[in-house]
Amino acid sequence: MRTSSMIWLSLVVVAGGYLAVRTSNGSMGRAYVRHETFDARASFEEQIQKIDDEENTLAAKGKTLPKKQILARKKLTTRLGDVDGITWTKVRSANRSELVGKDGNPDSAVVFSWSRTIGLWIAVLATLAIMSFLWGDNIFYKLAESVVVGASAAYAMVVGFWTGIIQNLFGKLVPGLMRDSVLPGLPGGQEAELIYIVPLVLSVLMLWRLAPVGGWISRWPLAFFIGATAGIRLVAYLDADFVQQIGSTIMPLIVSDKELGLMVGKSIGNIIIIIGVLTCLVYFFFSFEHKGLVGRTARVGIWFLMVTFGAGFGFTVMGRISLISDRFSFLFYDWLWLPKPGIDA
Amino acid sequence: MKRTVPLVIAAFTGFVLIVSYFIPYAQSWGEEAMIWFDILAAVAFVLGGGNLLKTHLQKISNRRAGWGFSLITISAFLITLGIGLAKMGVHPAEKFPEFAWSGDYLSQSSGFGWIYDFVYLPLAATMFSLLAFFIASAAFRAFRAKNTEAMILLGTAFIVLFGRTHAGIYVSQPVVDWLTAISGAEAGSLAGLRLDRITSTITSVFILAGNRAITIGIALGIVSLSLKVLLGVDRSYLGSEE
Amino acid sequence: MNDSMPTDSDYQTSTETSSANGFDVRNLDRRWIFLVMGFSVAIPMLMGLVFPEEPSQEVLDVFDTVENLEDGSKVLMAYDYDPASKGELEPMAAAFVRHCAEKKHKLYFITLWPAAVPMLQKNIAILNREYPEYTYGEDYVNLGFRPGQEGVIKVIVTDIKKLYANDVDGTDLNELSMTANLKNIQSMDLIINVSAGTPGAKEWVQYAATTYDIKMVAGVTGVGYTPLVPYVPKQLAGILGAIKAAAEYEEAVLLEYPQLRKNPATQEALRKMGPQLVAHMLIIGLIIAGNVIYFTDRKRGVS
Description:
Chain B is mainly alpha-helical.
């Protein structure tokens, strides 16, 4: 075996051993959750009691409970029988500092979570797999990339289904069915709006794009999409990005204030802004050849644009570095449990 | 029919939305059209997922290079989809405990939320964070001040990179203090020469000017493109003749 | 990404060249640069390098816009970012939540990005943990996500309940006190948008703030900052650009509400400025080094 391979193997074994020892004695890589039991009947009774207390308070002042509250109490009371026996355990993430309560005793509600601990290690392996691309293209990176492509497409599909298709399509077409199943909170007075058969048909036509024949029909909903986008963007861009921007550029060349007098800095700034906007617009005007006065003006415009792009580059660098900071923070503090300077002892 | 009907649909929809902006009576038509638009946007997600399945299944069946990774992609897709649509691990909403499917699909206890927190989030976040390393590599290999314009660009980048950290103040404050001392100016009057203040000036004057021109230019481009689409001049979205 | 990346043989070639001719910085294996970049972020982070921040005028414009609202004002918290940009935007999103909670504003959480739904939950968790007096339905509500990008804004500026009949828990908006009489977002006193791209701040400015004259501030990534500058101050009251602005905003909030300094989570962006500074110096150094090599070679006539 080559020397370099021996060195790498030794490093991996030592690092692996270190991680194994720390993990086994609970010094890193664990996730905790806080458990809380939810009892549906108890929750309803609590809400009814709250309304009763409000009624008593109002009665003491000679007032009556609003009709809305009376109706709500009636509904809750009617449903008490249906929710009897329905309980579950609410789970939320907990920090390891919550293992011990404020009184110094262990908090029994905070427990070790196998699913989140396994998830944490999967997240770490995924992070390291993506970072391995910095060494070179490899199978771990390709695996991670394949997973993210599949998972993100399915994520968007699930979100679109529950928030768009169920809520706004079926919720408007068949509100009764939705109210009895997945959307019990739909407003009670909502009736079926049969006009929504149109978007239902358009949706089916859109999905026909995947069919082996007749895919051309998907152009109809696509045309609706494109037409709508063109319609709303035409007005929005004309207003916000054209008229308003020109209005904002019409500014005083000489700025003065009653108390401060002539404001030289602001005046120079305004003059530079107007020159900058005009020269850049001259540069963008490609119908005239950029020669002579037009060429010189366009060149000044280019300089303004170079300053803009240089600043844009600076800001972009700033943004990317904070992203890697965040990932390192995850690895160092959420996984390895290294002490946070200034926070952990 | 195949190309005329879509042109009519696009034009009609667009003009309804433009009219609804200006005529309050027509506002409800515009709202309705936008709600249909939002529904179709949700269906577009489904179409995207379906297209992904179709592409990768074809790759697997044709045994093209990298078909193994397509298998991984489809597996991740189907597992995430199944867990999300079935609302696995999702408890009912607390207000409607008798309705088993009423809960939030992305609640903390849900399988879908687990996939987001421990699979999707670390992968997506890390993938974009790699850009920091490539920017560093590109800074060494590619960013050359070959001409005046490049020098202006890099010079501005230096000022912004310095000015947007404490280094800008650390380096420029002593210089400003020295200039104030030798010129006899009032204390604080030359504070505008500090690197962070110069960065602010660059932002509020030069970046404003350049980006305003770009914004106006893009607005004109979008308006002309939208008009071309609505008037049927631009038909590229219809694809090839069929 | 895969097709454009060099293969292992490219690395071998550059290494072999380096080893054959001695160390040649022109053919420096870029993995060394990656390693130095990694250290320049990791070491300051582990050392806890932190610098004082002084809020700039741009940041104070945003701060004052939120601070000068009457206590209990209605604020639309439009958070449009995903995991890819959470490192940059989560600190400013959290700072906005804490600032608004200190002012007892009524918060309406909404998003146009499907991947931002858990981000809303994380920010709401701040309210649950640190402001237990905040009651759901009375002080804050989570409207969640609807597909349609700018189409969503177009609907909710005129009639929000046509698109949002329920909140994320399925509760009828007519049953929550803060949404029962809510017709549209024109009644909002302020829109706070934290955005990573499209749809985001630009769309909120175009379809809501400009058309209906709703006051708005935005927090964006570094990449998205410069295109929004032209909107300030008439269409956009202020912008926070990148992690530096987030750190300054945190400092502004801590100066006004010093009791928050006891909570380390309120200084997340401030802690990130240490690695930021070192990495910036590295980038500047690399650009200078690259140009020195380039001009030296040009002078010597080396191609």
